[in-house]
Amino acid sequence: MEFPDYRWQRLALSLQCTFVHRARKAHPVSVLEAIVKGIGEAAGMAAPAQRSVFRWPFQRATRMQLAQGQTLDLEILLFGTDVAGALCWREQALRYFDPGAPGRNFRVVAAGLPREASFVDLLAGQGTQPESDEIALDFLTPLGFTRTPGYDRAWLDGPGLGRAMQHRLRRLFGAEPSLPPWPEVLPGYWKYCEIEHAARSQPGQKYLNGCVGPLLLRGANLADWWPWLRLFEQVGMGAQISFGQGLFRLHGASTPVLDPRLFDSNRIARVIERMAERHPELPGQLSAAGWPGDANACALAISRCLREGWPPRPARAAERPDGSTRQPESAAGADLVLHTHLAQLLGEALDRLVSTGSIGHRKDRMRADAADPVQAALAQGYTRVLEFELADIYPALDWARLEPRLDALLPRRDQHLRRTLSACLQSASSGGAGEPPAPARGLPPGSPLLPLLGQLCLDDFDRRLAAVAPGARIVRHAGHFTLLADKGGSAQALREQAGKAAAAAGLALEPGQKARRAPVDGSEYPGPPPVPSYQAHTEP
C-alpha cells in the first residue's frame, strides 16, 4: 500500500523550571503553549501555512505539574517549514530563554538539532503490528470533538473519530486522504475533562475540553489502520492543534482498563462503609461468613479473593409466610458488597453505550425526563403517541443473551472482571431442600447489578425496535416505552413491530394493551405514566 509523503521537522528541547509563582493558576499546557507560540512568532512562523506542536511525552494533562528545579523533556514538531526554518526556530528558542531576559522562569538544558521526519520513515521503523482484535488509544491530552446531540459528551463513534483524524491532517498537511473503513469504537472507558485557561482576547476564562484516557478500537481491519495510527500517535488528532491537544499513546494490544479498579481495596472499603450505614446487619453477615470485621481488612480479603477467582455463591432466599422459601431475593454478605462494587465500577462506562432513547436507571436522569424528547417529537410533527409496558423484564433477563452483550462491551483484557461477572450470573439458589436450582435467567431482585444488567437487555430491545420501526421515535423508561409516529403510521403495525422486537430480545409486551393515545390540543406530554391530559382512542 502506498502512503502520502507527509514530512515535518522535529527537535528535542529540555527546559528546567527555575521559578514557580505561589499564586500561579495557569495549567502547564497553557504555560508551554505560550512559550512555543512566542518562539514561533519570533521565528516568523505564520499560521495556517506553518504550525508548531509541542509534545510532553508520557505526561497526562490531568496530572501535569510544574515544580522549581523540574526538567521538562519536550518534543517540538514544526509543520510547513524546512530544516533552515527549524534551525531558525531553535535559535529563537535560545534567545527566548536568555538568562538576561526578564520574566523567564525556565532555562534551556539542551536543545537538539532539528531533523526531518516523514510518514514513510515512520512506517519503515514501525516493526510488526501485534496481532490483536482490540487496540487502545490512551489519550494523554484532551481530544476535542463535536458532541453528538442526545448522547453523552464522551460518546464518539467511528465516523466521529475519522473526522478528528481528517481535521488534523488537513490543518497540518493540507490534505484529506482516503482512510480505511471505520473501526468499531468503544467510548465507555475514557472520560471528559476541562482545563481552565485564562482568556486573553476578552475577560473571563475559557476551557480546553475534550476526553482523556483509553479509547478502544475493534474490528477485522485493524491491520489497515495500524500505519495511520502510528502517524497520529506522533502528530495527534482533532482540529484543536494548540495546547498540545489530542495526543495519545498507542497500545497494539490493549491493556486492562477496569481490572486494576476491580482489585482496588480502597474502593471496596468505601463501598463497605457506605453500605454499613444503610444496612446495619452487614457487618454481622460478613463476620458470620468468616470475613474480617474491619472494613479495610475485609476489603483487602475481598480483593485477594477476586484475584484468585470469585466462587459462585448462593443468593439469600426470602421466606414465605408458610416457612418455605422462594426465588432468592438478594445477594448476601460479601456478595452484596461485590455486586455494589461492580455496579459502581461498570455504571458510568456501560451507561454511555446504551441507546439515547433510554431514560430509566441512568445517572442524572429522572422519569420526568422522558417528557422532553416526546414533546420535541410532537413539535416536529409526530402526531401519535403509543405507550406500552414490557412484561416481567427483570425475571426474564436471559443470561444466554446477556453474556454476549457484555462480551461486546467489556475490554478484552479485563479478564478478571469478566470472570467475576460470570460468577455473579452463575450464582445458584439457596432455597429449601428439594427445590431446583435457579434458572438460567433473571437475577435476585435485590441485586445492585440488576438495573445495570437489565438496562443492557432492554438496550438490545431498543435497537431491534429501531431497526423494525425506522420511522418511529422511541423513548423508554425501564419497562415503559413510548412510540411516536406521524399521521401515516399505523398503530396496529407499530404494536406488532414492538411485539416482534420484544420477542427477538427474549421479552414480551404486557398482554391486552391496545391503547392508542394522542395529545390534547395545547397540552404538554408530562412523561410516563399517562395523565388526564391524554385521551384514549380505540383503533379506527
Would you give an account of this structure?
The protein is of the alpha+beta class. The protein folds into 3 domains: 7-120, 2-Layer Sandwich (Alpha-Beta Plaits); 126-251, Alpha-Beta Plaits, CATH 3.30.70.1900; 270-319 and 326-537, no CATH class. It contains 15 helices and 17 strands. The protein has helices spanning 28-42, 83-96, 119-124, 158-173, 222-235, 259-262, 265-278, 282-288, 295-308, 334-351, 371-379, 399-409, 415-425, 450-468, 491-504; strands at 7-17, 51-55, 71-79, 106-111, 115-118, 134-143, 184-186, 191-198, 205-218, 248-251, 316-319, 325-330, 384-389, 473-477, 480-485, 516-519, 534-537. A hairpin with a 2-residue loop joins β14 and β15.
